[in-house]
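Entry 14. Ran structure prediction on the chain below.
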Amino acid sequence: QVQLVESGGGLVQAGGSLRLSCAASGRTFSYYTMGWFRQAPGKEREFVATINWSGGSTYYADSVKGRFTISRDNAKNTVYLQMNSLKPEDTAVYYCAPSSSWPSTRAKDYDAWGQGTQVTVSS
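Output, structure tokens:
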């Protein structure tokens, strides 16, 4: 069983930046692809970014490409999401999760979701 704890969310003005962290425990973190998803009120959970086990490959949703950067530190069992040039439409609860698939943008390929961290971008 893996436990995931996301942190780093908050309220920021449009154009600002936030760095999210996701700390994992209970499973060999470095074996897995890690992904970030987000869910806004009334909407389905959507893919944001994913990174392979080594950190050597990444993939992004078109809506965040060029603004967000996913990275990982396997020694710390942590994956990060650096979010720059934030927009009001980025407002959502952000979740991280592991996957045995690479690459995958489908939420059903990920499991052991954390509790999420709220990101609110004001205009």
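The beta strands are 3-7, 10-13, 18-25, 33-39, 46-51, 58-60, 68-73, 78-83, 92-99, 117-122. Will compare against last week's run tomorrow.
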